């Protein structure tokens, strides 16, 4: 797992949070509000309810998070953060897919850490 990690992350699903951490740092440094991507209790509750209703896989949670938060991502900042993190330029959609994967993993790890869901190794993306 990378050195800096988001609050309550465990590394069970996402081993490398560098893009997510760098994206939030860039937002903060230019005074942009990226707080809609932070784990809101309502979003966590919805994911918890998804998992309780039926067996879901990581891709289903990923689709949910993408649908809920994709429009809150600032592409210009994200593309720069992606290039700084991985050393290659990506399109907004490619970078967004990676960021959303890290967000979805983080949200599930939070729920696991708090004891609301149990991560099975088959969930590893």
Describe this structure in words.
Helix content is 57%, strand content 0%. The protein has five helices and no strands. It is globular. By secondary structure, the chain is mostly helical.
Proportion of β residues? under 5%
Distance between the termini: 15 Å
Low-confidence stretches: none
Radius of gyration, taken over Cα atoms and rounded to an integer in Å: 14 Å
Class by alpha and beta content:
mainly alpha
Q: What's the number of extended β-strand segments?
A: 0
In short:
The chain is an all-alpha fold and 125 residues long. The chain has five helices and no strands. α1 packs across α4 (75-86), α3 (58-69) crosses α5 (92-113) and α4 crosses α5.
Topology:
Layout lengths: L17 H12 L11 H13 L4 H12 L5 H12 L5 H22 L12
Helix pairs in contact: 1-4, 3-5, 4-5
From the structure above, extract its key features.
125 residues; 57% helix; 5 helices
